[in-house]
Fold this sequence. Notes:
A six-stranded antiparallel barrel has the order 1-2-3-4-6-5. The protein has a six-stranded antiparallel β-sheet with strand order 15-14-23-22-19-20. Strands 16-17-18-21 form a four-stranded antiparallel β-sheet. The protein has eleven helices and 23 strands. Helix 3 packs antiparallel against helix 5 (202-218) and helix 3 (124-143) packs antiparallel against helix 10 (300-313). The radius of gyration is 25 Å and the shape is globular. It has three domains: 14-99, Phosphorylase Kinase, domain 1 (2-Layer Sandwich), CATH 3.30.200; 107-306, Orthogonal Bundle (Transferase(Phosphotransferase), domain 1), CATH 1.10.510; 317-440, Tumour Suppressor Smad4 (Sandwich), CATH 2.60.200.20. By secondary structure, the chain is of the alpha+beta class.
Amino acid sequence: MSGSEAGLLRPGQGFATTSGRQGRVGALLGAGGQGEVYSVGLDGQTFALKWYHPHYAELDTTLRSRLDRAVRRGAPTEDFLWPLDLVDIPGSRSFGYVMLLRTDDYVSIRDLIAPPPKRLELSLARRATICQQLARSFLQLHANGFCYQDVNFGNIFLDPKRGRVLICDNDNVNIDGAEASIYGTRKFMAPEVVRRETLPNSRTDLFSMSVLFFYTLFGWHPLDGRREAETKLMNAAAEMRLYGEQPLFLFDPHDDANGPVPGLHDALVARWNSLPTRLRTLFERAFGQGLSDPAARVLETEWRGALRIVEEASFACPECGFEHVAEPNPAGPPGVHERCLACTEPLATPAFLQVRDRLLAMTVGATMDGEVLERTLSGVAAGRVEAHPQHPDRIGLRNLTGDAWRAILADGASYTVPPGQVVRVLPGATIDFGRNQGRISQRLAAGEGT
């Protein structure tokens, strides 16, 4: 949004929320097709006020009831920039709502596909974390009986440093199955919505979410393959054909009519091949059977398990930096490629810690989530991989829990690792965390992968 011109409201203008709180309008922050956003003072704190254009408020006849319901129910998770209170101004033909201010730490998720130098460069693990956050938030939204209706780049913001997301424009949210006021956003709509056969609902949300995940990991749309590349004029008829009437996944395993074009999609092919089988299988379902059968679409809980592998088992090629993901294999060594999928050089890998079905790459700076140990809450770091300050080639795992660990070396020797201390990452060693154990795989030399 950009709002440099005079707004609908005046700086200093007073207002009251429907709950009786008194506030005062501040600076105009931005403007768009629906209305304008202002900073406002309320109870000694600064908030944001979204104020609707009168014609928009009249056109969307269910807008006020949706907002009122949202205020009463509260945000599904802290990741939603949720309406807190409705606002009326005597004599005005419109209304608005108060929400928390979005801080400057958050940038648009659209920056992931922006041209350089604005493009936001994030690690593959951090991109997976962002998708995990979104899956968790949309799961809670849908569990409460709501649908978002318009999942797209314009509504999602992220904090690159923390990997946190913020879901905005929640005036779109409605009861699942209720009449919708919008169809969605181009290239994010489910095929049946593109064809105008249905209105948005929780199942079309699942499709839009899958598109968002593919964009986040690949920087590309999942249905843009050979057919899109050969389209000379991208008009309404072409979009209907590509995304509504004849949609076909770029990596459809049964039909390569819309497959990648050599020389154009090589980077996408490398990224596809770098991902774990479990995640690729979900994308194949989301954009295979899920294109025509809403009931077959991938659920939020399914995405979270597959994305977790990318978070924990990704590592970069030391030659070119291209990131790969190891395949978990509880029965043996993790599956890795022999050569880098980007530069084709022999691929040296880090050591891996296998804890039941979880595989963690022992790369410097990586953290071990407390959930892995089944002792602490998810999101709380239980361990951190560090390099020795005098010997950078020596890698250790620092115990960030309040309990002692026990390290058992390959030769049978063992020792205690108190809280705050470091256990060296050595091939063949086992770490007893208390409720479960982790085994460190043999560090693979270049070319030894499977």
